[in-house]
Amino acid sequence: MKTGLTFGIVLLAFLWYLSFSATRLDRLHHRVETSWANLDGLLQRRAAVALELAHSTFADPASSLLLTAAAYQARAASIKDRSFAESGLSGALSLLQNELALETNPAEKALLAELAELTAKIRVAIAIHVDAVTSTRSVRAKLIFKFFKLAGTAPLPMTYDFEDDAL
Predict the structure, then answer these.
(1) What is the pLDDT of residues 65-124, one digit of tens each?
(2) Where are the alpha helices (DSSP H) in the chain?
(3) Are 75 and 47 in contact (CB under 8 A)?
(4) What pTM does this model have?
(5) Angle at which helices 106-140 and 2-54 cross, to 10°
(6) At CA 152, angle to CA 149 and CA 156, rounded to 5?
(7) Greatest distance between any 2 Cα atoms in the chain
């Protein structure tokens, strides 16, 4: 009788552990989704500011065309092409950085200040997203999560190449 009770307690404790682990993994996946949504919003805003800069009076027509194309590509890119598009926008913005720094128009200076603020926020958002992905992947790599399929059908979270770019 005592072994049955002990076995029952151990079984309940193990089931509680599995439930707790699955809930923890679900929270980690939610953290990845939330961090990506935040990062995506900031990247979309950066593309919008780049478009505003491209349509301002600071740039010559060739620079304006380059920045416009890169910004539209970044805004419309599918998840598969996102890394390439965001890297292209970062490259276009860095090419024009020296030209932008010489601008004296107050409206364009405000856009540059907003771009600098967005870049700082994007760096933080990338760090948070990479940390969330790393945490989730390390938990999912544990044997108990694999054996009991605690991740369900959730895809393995991933980072993107543009997150390594110098913004």
Answers:
(1) 999 999 999 999 988 888 999 999 998 988 877 676 666 678 778 888 899 999 999 999
(2) 2-54, 61-76, 82-95, 97-101, 106-140, 143-147
(3) yes
(4) 0.90
(5) 160
(6) 95
(7) 87
